[in-house]
């Protein structure tokens, strides 16, 4: 019985197996490409964050002590801004 199925439908079974293998390969390739794209986006976000932090550090570094105190007073919870 099984030999008769393989003899009569063996070509179709082979084509169906090849099609399933191709679909699986496409699926996993898409997943890996998506992972690479997400990692690239995260790297871009980290770079933008680091650039913004450097700008703030440079701005604060160029201030005198009173300017830094005034700027930091804006963030105080007790509302004691100067």
Task: Describe the model.
- The protein contains two helices and no strands.
- The protein has 82 residues and is an all-alpha fold.
- It has one domain (2-73).
- The longest helix has 60 residues, at 2-61.
- The protein starts with a helix and ends in a 9-residue tail after the last helix.
Q: What is the element layout, followed by pairings?
A:
Layout lengths: L1 H60 L3 H9 L9
Annotation field: number of helices: 2
What is the alpha-carbon Rg in Å? 31 Å
Question: What share of residues are in beta strands?
Answer: under 5%
* Number of separate structural domains: 1
Which residues sit in consecutive blocks of at least 5 with pLDDT less than 50? Answer: none
Mean pLDDT: 88
Distance between the termini: 92 Å
Mass-distribution shape: rod-shaped
Given helix and strand content, the structural type is mainly alpha
Main pleated sheet:
none
- Tally the beta strands: 0
Report the order of strands and helices.
HH
What is the helical fraction, as a range of percent? over 70%
TL;DR of this structure?
The protein is mainly alpha-helical and 82 residues long.
Kindly list the characteristics that best describe this protein:
single chain; 82 residues; mainly alpha; 2 helices; rod-shaped
């Amino acid at each position: 019985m099984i030999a008769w199925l393989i003899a009569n439908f063996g070509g179709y079974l082979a084509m169906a197996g090849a099609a399933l293998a191709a679909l699986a390969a496409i699926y996993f390739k898409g997943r890996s490409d998506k992972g690479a794209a997400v990692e690239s986006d995260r790297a871009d976000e980290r770079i933008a964050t680091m650039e913004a932090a450097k700008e703030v550090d440079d701005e604060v570094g160029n201030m005198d002590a009173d300017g830094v105190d005034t700027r930091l007073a804006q963030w105080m919870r007790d509302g004691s801004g100067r």
